[in-house]
Write a structure and sequence with these properties.
A hairpin with a 3-residue loop joins β1 and β2. This protein has one domain. By secondary structure, the chain is of the alpha+beta class. The longest helix is centred in the first third of the chain and has 54 residues.
Length: 236
């Protein structure tokens, strides 16, 4: 009798079974890697959304901290559509100029978006008035010039602003929010004296309420309160 043949190879059926098993392993591995890649991309996208929102909120607080009030000139104004403010420029003193900053919501590419706009630095009353008006135009029907100063912050369904006055949160457009400022001299950063105007008193605080759409890293209602840095709290 002859013994078993040494070095016997695989049969065709065995090769097919092995190839099928290897194919299954490859498919499972690919699906696992694809799932990990998708999860990583989703995590990074949500992290970017959170970071962008944090930067936007920080910029909001920075703008309010930098508000500067000139005689006969509005420093902060909310008309139900856009919040405009006059703030210090990038320089350390007002001689380097001030700028107008505006925050608003507008539909961009089919998505409601929270937006920030800023003018260039201005040094005269006339330039400041032009920038103030340009901010209002930007909030309604911006042209190419206005869009140059615009930055999209985050998707936004709606937003509200309240002022803190007299120990309570009130509507910024309420009748007690304004006062007549008398003429006391020329504009601080240049220009001719201006007639008396009605301007908003700076509130003790500003409350921002954002309604963020679903599907974002942070969704729902987000409230952010800001207190005027120069506010003096009476001691009890």
């Amino acid at each position: 009798m002859r013994g078993p043949r040494a070095g016997r190879g695989f049969t065709l059926v065995e090769l097919l079974v092995a190839l099928f098993a290897m194919s299954l392993l490859a498919i499972m591995s690919w699906r696992g890697l694809d799932g990990m890649t998708r999860a990583q991309a989703a995590t990074e996208a949500r992290a970017d959304q959170v970071l962008t929102l944090q930067v936007g909120l920080q910029q909001w607080a920075t703008d309010l901290d930098a508000i500067i009030q000139f005689p006969q000139t509005a420093a902060l104004d909310w008309n139900g559509r856009v919040l405009r403010m006059t703030r210090r420029g990038t320089g350390a003193t007002t001689t380097n100029g001030v700028m107008v900053v505006a925050w608003g919501r507008r539909v961009v590419n089919g998505t409601g978006t929270w937006l920030r706009w800023q003018s260039g630095e201005v040094t005269t009353r006339e330039q400041l008035q032009d920038a103030w008006q340009q901010a209002n135009i930007w909030s309604q029907n911006p042209g190419p010039q206005e869009l140059q100063g615009e930055v999209a912050v985050t998707p936004l369904d709606e937003w509200q602003v309240f002022y803190f006055r007299g120990g309570a949160w009130t509507n910024p457009m309420s009748s007690d929010a304004v006062a007549v400022t008398p003429v006391t001299g020329p504009f601080v950063i240049g220009g001719s004296p201006a007639p008396p105007v009605v301007v908003s008193n700076l509130p003790d605080g500003v409350r921002l309420i954002l309604t963020l759409p679903p599907g974002q890293a942070i969704a729902g209602v987000l409230t952010r309160d800001w207190a005027r840095p120069t506010l003096t709290v009476p001691k009890s």
